[in-house]
Amino acid sequence: MSIQNRFQPLLKQREQEHLYRRRPLVFSPQQPIMQINGIECINFSSNDYLGLANHPNIKQALLNSLNTEDDISYGSGAAHLVTGHHLHHHLLEDELADWLGVERTLLFSTGYMANLAVQQTLMQAGDTILADKLNHASLIDGAQLSAATVKRYPHLDMEALERRLKQAQAQNSQVMIVTDGVFSMDGDIAPLKTLQQLAQNYQAWLFVDDAHGIGTLGKQGKGCFEHFGLEPDENTIIVGTLGKAFGTSGAFVAGSETLIETLIQFARPYIYTTAMPQLNALAIREALKLVKNAEASREALQQNIKHFREGALKIGLNLWPSETAIQPIMLGKSETAVAWSEALKQAGFWVGAIRPPTVPKNQARLRVTLSASHTVEQIDQLLQALHNIQTRIGG
Ligand code: PMP
């Protein structure tokens, strides 16, 4: 069968189900006012939570390094274990570990790869992965790549999790509890205190993907552990991504010396891939300085979240109980979400419609993401546009 014959019907079906996705073409730097598909609009879809993606300090650090005796190549040239592990990668890992108060960190080119690596490497046949049902796709894929038995528990349901922990204990199976820190499509925060307690009670390992928490949550931006006033213990594994609040790209795993050495020795998504460009590591080092000193931006982000929620609830929008920068407006049907997103585009706002399979059936939504770089006026304009669309199209 030709590729055409196999896949054309599937593409057609996607279109008919209002699930077909197109990549918006961006013509401007990442910032609140952007040119997307030739339209000038205010962007409420990015993960640039602290407004660092286009920060002058990061650009300047890159320019300086290119113009001085540093003599940095763009490409890293090889995998970390070959000859691709350059000085800025090495320094960045130490700086991230110092900042987070963990023994070590390990860089990956993407969060997706870090999430594949942790579960595939650590979880073996006979082990059990207990995963929140709404975990990010990369965590789901990572679980599937491992040889462990995978069981999912209903979203945030700690009693259901404990029942599964008891079952695994009865079978003498090593458990890893796997959860998003901040759920990427819902914006709610995992109940880390209970999760940590359960992990300790049942000698389970706790793996938290804090992609959306790192940089934004906690006074110092150290993520969801700091948010709850908790310290990671020796059986905690944290993934942080660098393409969101850090405004760059890449990710790191944070944890114990043994954890990191195990990943270096055995993690296929670490070993068999070229190291990220050294210049990116240099940009992340600059971003880390900014994140450490971003207390005012984190406060501004919290104010923006509060302002948006108050305004949205006042006009009767169906919000999710989220206190983070991710604020879904629940609409149900995919075609409704698409219609609202299109109407917002016409009004000059970019807000993505999130549909199955990214979210469960009949839970299509608009996913508004807020940044410290949005102004109150921009948020008010969005609320006004949402109010107009609600009156015109309905939910
Ligand atoms: N985890 C979560 C919760 C995410 O939202 C994302 C990105 N959307 C990732 C992991 C993947 O990170 P990256 O984009 O660096 O691959």
TrEMBL record:
Modification type N6-(pyridoxal phosphate)lysine: residues: 244
Pathway of action: Cofactor biosynthesis; biotin biosynthesis
Residue positions binding substrate: 21, 136, 358
Gene Ontology MF terms: 8-amino-7-oxononanoate synthase activity
Cofactors (names): pyridoxal 5'-phosphate
Positions in coiled-coil regions: 284-311
Stretches assigned to the Aminotransferase class I/classII large domain: 40-386
UniProt keyword annotation of Ion transport present: no
Catalysed reactions, semicolon-separated: 6-carboxyhexanoyl-[ACP] + L-alanine + H(+) = (8S)-8-amino-7-oxononanoate + holo-[ACP] + CO2
EC number(s) reported in the record: 2.3.1.47
Pfam families the record matches: Aminotran_1_2
Keywords from the UniProt entry: Acyltransferase, Biotin biosynthesis, Coiled coil, Pyridoxal phosphate, Transferase
InterPro entries xref list: Aminotrans_II_pyridoxalP_BS, Aminotransferase_I/II_large, AON_synthase_class-II, AONS_Archaea/Proteobacteria, AONS_Proteobacteria, PyrdxlP-dep_Trfase, PyrdxlP-dep_Trfase_major, PyrdxlP-dep_Trfase_small
Binding, pyridoxal 5'-phosphate: 111-112, 184, 212, 241
Subunit (UniProt): Homodimer.
Function, as annotated: Catalyzes the decarboxylative condensation of pimeloyl-[acyl-carrier protein] and L-alanine to produce 8-amino-7-oxononanoate (AON), [acyl-carrier protein], and carbon dioxide.
Family, per entry: Belongs to the class-II pyridoxal-phosphate-dependent aminotransferase family. BioF subfamily.
PANTHER family registered for this protein in UniProt: 8-AMINO-7-OXONONANOATE SYNTHASE, CLASS II AMINOTRANSFERASE/8-AMINO-7-OXONONANOATE SYNTHASE
Protein name, entry field: 8-amino-7-oxononanoate synthase
Annotated organism of origin: Thiomicrorhabdus lithotrophica
The gene coding this protein: bioF
